[in-house]
Queue: 2 jobs
Job 1
Amino acid sequence: MYQYDNYDQAMVDARVEEFRDQVKRRLEGKLTEEQFRPLRLMNGLYLQLHAYMLRVAVPYGTLSGKQMRMLGHIARKYDKGYGHFTTRQNIQYNWIKLSDAPDILADLASVEMHAIQTSGNCIRNISSDQYAGVAADEAADPRPWAELLRQWSSFHPEFSYLPRKFKIAVIASEEDRAAMRLHDIGIELVKRDGVVGAKVFAGGGMGRTPMVAPEIRDFVTEDELIAYVEACLRVYNRYGRRDNKYKARIKILVHELGVDEYRRQVEEEFAHMNTLGLNPPREELARIATYFADPAYESGLSDEIDRTDPDFALWLDRNVVAHKQAGYAIANISLKPIGGIPGDASAEQIELMADLAERYSLDELRVTHAQNIVLPYVKKADLYALWQELNEAGLGEANLDLVTDIIACPGLDYCSLANARSIPVAQKIASRFADNGKDADIGELKLKISGCINACGHHHAGHIGILGVDRKGTENYQLLLGGSGAEDCSLGTITGPGFDENGIVDAVEKVTDLYLDQRQDGERFLDTYRRLGMAPFKEALYG
Amino acid sequence: MKILTANDLTTGDVVWWAGDGWSRLLIEAIDVADKGEEIGQREEIARRIIGAYVIDGEMTDDGPRPAHIKDRIRGLGPTVRPDLTSKPEAGDLAKWVI
């Protein structure tokens, strides 16, 4: 993992003290709320439905045991005993006191964490593949690039007041586990003739105007990647709309200019950038890369796993995936217990996961955009002991990528922007499919729920998506089918009139029943939908 | 009735204007008639609260009930965490909210 140098630490420490002073001045009346609001937002502190909410950055979703333990400590000491892992691979606390916020940031800084750039019209936390560095299918390790981008984008003076927020994802596998093409800029590291470089996509995103990012550049060498990304940002910063926040994201600019014209302008800017010599020196990337070198894997480990315990075998089949190193496995911890709140974990669970990472996963964890946790370095021989401890703590749900592994935004239970509650719908759907036993039969089905059009719950990218809307003061839920955030990226289509809270649960069952009836060998729900089209699903719902 | 609500500046807690100050309990909210905006501005200047706004509601046997679901959830707490609501013993919170 990357570790702060003195410069990183000094920067974060200085920011804590600056915010401490700002909070003091606010409470003393020397700053009005109008003056203070942008300052608190720059430090991740929102005002939500019930209280202040603090969003803490987890760079590309990677955490050490010590950092995870600190997240548990914050949940216990300053919040109401839990935290919420988000679709941006971050964590949010829902019940923060303004007067505590500086101390929380100081605690975070003590473990090389912060909440900087988790709000505002700047470059947000860089996201990446939760299996980075341990997946067998990578062209390169995306983490050094994600870290380089993090450093480049932190306090970047030119990009601190963009037209709108800006999200970047970096992956390095053909299998996209990070919804890369639904980011403002998506970077896919690739290898061409033995040379590592990147394919660059720009103008993707969800929200009220969802778009899949088109490819802007087929290949840019690793030496020039930062300059190319900077050129993409410069064109956006110059021409992105500032008169209408709903049309201010880069996707609108790329769409309105057209891909070819946007690309032409970026190339022109890129040619100029390259004359300035602003690309980071190779030594800097090499320095960063040393932090992500493979650990000292033990050799000669057995790949055999005792599957005698059927519950363990089920978890193994569902939640454990192949590691690039013999004798090791990647273990997914589901934060989607049936009937639970997607992404929530108690302080005790967070601390337990920190302990388990230290004991079983070379002191490392990852947060996934699907609101789960990954232990990336587990010896196969340790899996059973790990599962037993997870299971005892309510963290042993064997449902990765099943219909019960639902992404859900906080919705109207917590969010002041939401129009409808997301979590109760997720709970009812998960319970319905766990009770009727169809979840296992259905297999992979990515169901995603947002409580408003801002799409924090990624409903556009769900094989089944649900969007909560306000219909004359009551909650109503639209159903979408056919979305995907993976390498076969697509946007879901609304089926028709919406449903009430119970009706949407029935609707999901109707479309999955049709799938079970119509599927061909090996087809996932998404495949069957794509083969059959919308018509039979509409018929099942409204016919 | 017109209800004035805000968040406590220091703690962020949801608060309701109760006539002689702010209450954490919706049941203590009073009808502010046409005085809500004025009280809200005064209280913001006094640095007691932020984000004051006036909502419509009605007086029921259970006390003041905001007209919009969002404000009912603000008054109650998250429906998915009954233990953190103002009605932790209530059976079906959704009934109160919807």
Job 2
Amino acid sequence: MVSIQNLHKKFNKNVVLSGVDLEINEGGIFAVLGPNGSGKTTLIKSILGMVIPNEGDIYVLGKHIKSNSDYRYKIDYLPQIANFPSNLRVKELIKMIKDLRGHTHEDLHLIELFKLQPFLDKKLGNLSGGTKQKVNIVLTFMFDSPLIILDEPTTGLDPISLIRLKELIQVEKAKGKTILITSHIMSFVEEVSDEIVFLLEGEIYFKGTISELKSKTNQPDFEHAIASILTENHV
Amino acid sequence: MRSRWSYVYFAFYLLLGTVLLFLNNDLSKAVITLMNVIIVLVPLIGTIFGVMYYYNSKEFTELLLAQPLKRSSIFLGQYLGVAISLSMSLILGLGIPFIFYGLFRSSAIWDFSLLLITGTFLTLIFTALAFNIALSNENKIKGFGYAILLWLFLAIIYDGIFLMSLILFEDYPLDKLSLVGTMLNPIDLSRTLILLKLDISALLGYTGAIFKQFFGTNFGLIVSFITLTAWVVFPVLRIVFKSKKKDF
């Protein structure tokens, strides 16, 4: 599905990724974990072509991402911080993205699910953080793409919306889609993910299932396993 | 944001055109006065709007970047959106009052069209330069500062340095130097083009005669337009080039 080979990226002198090799197979939920500044978002933005790597190759669905921008039709992306143009209305934004990517009716269902009807005519600049995140989720899930990338999807969501989001992720997974998630909420990751990738100082420290991680670190639960990696490496 | 300000800009030119025609009561004189305004104001507005639009639509750009669109089309689209709407404001805002005043029955029509053409060129040039500056500077304040400095340099300081060097080296033949110097600055080039077209080059003395010899011919006119086009093309190419390498 996604194949990353020897990916290097530095911002000025700050090395963020140094030689990441990663294969993400089709189907299932992958969580990318790591401390702040370990390069999770940079990795994701490299896959999307928003960050240009210094070195390395990325293939999505067998095609090099530099050759064409059309592969982004196959990706639904939820950005970490929902930075929307503040003078647009929610309705206008949804319509605009639809114009860009093609027709869909899924948005009506999602708006219903997240109870966004009262906000449709409001400007994005006047929405609360959580509501913006819900709009963000609607925009991401309204297209039926084989790869879904979620960067901190839980930010600002209330408990009910969080449950709905988890359900939504499971529904998409059942359709055989590949879902890539980054999050700092360990319970969320433990609940939804099939396989995890742990980034540390720009390299992949661990890749495998959660139970493999537990046995590797000799810790009974996931949160402590992660904590033990971090303390061992003096981060 | 963009549309509201371009209406204001349009209204401003509409007002300016009408008032000037009313005060001067003569098309040619109004064209001369307008030239002085346009030559300074158009680059300033192009620069400020370009920088402002880029920084204001940054979030929007990031949203678009995750969509299946080519980077060059995103940025060229934004550039053309700003530059064309500014040019339309200029052309319509000045054109409408002049047409009502009887432009088509007057001999000033060519002078006036040249004024609009150079005005459009200046808009395209300075918006492109502003986009370049904004693309290279993450910091808004810095970007604005550089953009204003660029305008100040090309509109005012360049002339100062140019004049100083002419006075300093007055013992040498300076025809070629002053010609090249004028060609290199789009604002000076536009001003010279219009002045010579208006046939007031006699006011410029000996240099004016040389300029007339060069710019007055078809060859000179073509070279000038090629230079102006180059001033548009190179910054636009840099927008495409720079945007392909930028991280978001």
